[in-house]
Amino acid sequence: MDTTLEDRIRAELESNRERTGPPDGAVEVPPIPSGRYCDRDLAALERDRVWRRSWLFAAHTSQLPDPGSYLTSDRSGSPLVVVRGEDGVVRAFYNSCRHRAAPVVRDECGTARRLTCQYHSWSYDLGGRLRAVPDSRNFVDLDQEALGLVPVRCEEWEGFVFTNEDPDAEPLTEYLGALTEQMQEVDGTRLRWIDRQVHPVEANWKVVVDAFLEVYHIRTVHPDNAALLYDDSTVTVAMLPNGHSRLSVAIRPELLGVMDPSPVADNPSVGELWRQTSTSFGWFPNVIAPLDTGAFPLLCIWPVDEHRSELVLEWFAPDWGEGGMPEEHALRVALFQTVMAQDTANLGAIQRSVESPGARPFRIGWHERLVFHFHRAVDLAIGVDRVPSGLAVSDVLDRFVEDG
Ligand code: FES
Ligand SMILES: [Fe+2]
Questions:
Q1: In a 3-state reduction of DSSP, which class is residue 282?
Q2: What's the start-to-end Cα distance of the chain, in Å?
Q3: Is residue 250 within a helix (H) or strand (E), and if so which, with residue range?
Q4: Number of structural domains the chain divides into
Q5: Are both 120 and 154 inside the same structural domain?
Q6: Which structural domain, as residue segments, surrounds residue 111?
């Protein structure tokens, strides 16, 4: 991270620790209508305008080590397959056969030389070209060239592979903008994917994203872990373009170093600020990335319908070279289960509240403004004019969005 920015974050952490009222320049954060968390029309708009037009984290290159390595997912709402080609390039396609739309790959992950449909065995090469049609004598004028798998945009940043169903989307690195510079030191190409945990949540996906965009809750929800480690009074945030964000909170001085991994499990490219704070990034729309030295998860939040979602933790660790994974990574993954259980405990009840006649707009604090920023980005992605009546959030915080 740029040293000027690092200095600015350090100074803000300190001044936030000291202040006794809102900081200079802070404004009242406008309310968030609770109907945003249960409206079916809004959910349909999100599907078309957010999920089908945003860059969504799909995989890490370490999960696709060889030509033919593939992953499938339909969590974004569309069935996709991501596969490494013979030429080493990672590509994405709709996992949908050009004959009668059956999946060409059924497993969640694996390795294949050809993608062969599960219905009548039409077969595609790793670049998506249709290569074999059984009993082709029964098709008149079959143009195999024109019947390749339908491609989906697929781009990589530092080993993180993203897909986007919008053929006209801006390039991934432009979409991520300042994040690419600010997250550089995690050295993503040297990470290894190590684990996945899936938590079904009985709440709208935005209830879940909100829960990871503030640390106001840690004293109440995590009194025995995060609250002991972090001084939440220091929380320092940045609202970044395209709905992205950054949040830093200082480790209590007396506990500096306690979470540091041993040398074999450490990520040497991670600098001092990340070792003295928890610094997490929001990748709009659905990833919270608490990047860290040692093992860390990407928290990926996927909608199921307007009332339910899935929180998927994708865990990474710095490449440890030969031999088995350092035990402390597995330990950290296990410890985090407690934190996640605490985080998700309230969410189903929040959903029942926002769906009740007692629901009222959310009144949030200045230190929680990333929650508001995220909702505003949802509206901007949809187009504010299309948002169902009474459900849009205000634009008054737009002037606080930082370039970098
Ligand atoms: S649907 Fe794929 S071969 Fe028939
Ligand atoms: Fe939490």
A1: strand
A2: 11
A3: strand 245-251
A4: 2
A5: yes
A6: 56-164
91 and 195 in a common domain: no
Do 279 and 394 share a domain, yes or no? Answer: yes
Closest atom of ligand 1 to CA, residue 97: 2
The per-residue pLDDT for 326 is: 95
Ligand 2 centroid distance, CA of 219 (Å):
9
Query: Who lines ligand 1 at CB under 6 A?
Result: 97, 99-100, 102, 117, 119-122
Q: Tell whether the model's pLDDT for residue 2 goes beyond 90.
A: no
Which residue out of 117, 124, 135, 147 has the highest number of ligand 1 atoms within 8 Å of its CB and is therefore the one to mutate? 117
Residue 175 included in any domain: no
Indicate if 229 and 319 belong to the same structural domain: yes
How many angstroms separate the CA atoms of 109 and 105, rounded? 9
**DSSP characters for 294-357?**
S-EEEEEEEEEETTEEEEEEEEEEE---SSSPPHHHHHHHHHHHHHHHHHHTTHHHHHHHHTST
Are residue 261 and residue 394 in the same domain, yes or no?
A: yes
Residue 198, number of CB atoms within 10 A of its CB: 11
Instruction: Give yes or no: residues 241 and 330 share one domain.
Output: yes
Query: DSSP characters for 164-181?
Result: ES-TTPPPHHHHHTTHHH
Model pLDDT, residue 270: 92
Give Cβ neighbours of residue 372 (< 8 Å, ≥ 6 apart).
Answer: 29, 30, 32, 364, 393, 397
Q: Give me the pLDDT at residue 175, please.
A: 98
The reply to whether 217 falls in a domain is yes
137 and 21, same structural domain? no
pLDDT, tens digit, 9 for 90 and up, residues 191-242? 999 999 999 999 999 999 999 999 999 999 999 999 999 999 999 999 999 9
Asked whether residue 89 falls in the same domain as residue 217, the answer is no
- Ligand 1: residue whose CA is nearest its atom 1: 100
CATH number for the domain spanning 155: value is: 2.102.10.10
159 touches 130 (CB < 8 A):
no
Give the model confidence (pLDDT) of 154-191 as tens digits: 999 999 999 999 999 999 999 999 999 999 999 999 99
Q: Determine the number of helices (DSSP H) and then strands (DSSP E) in the chain.
A: 11, 17
Among the atoms of ligand 1, which is closest to the Cα of residue 101? 1
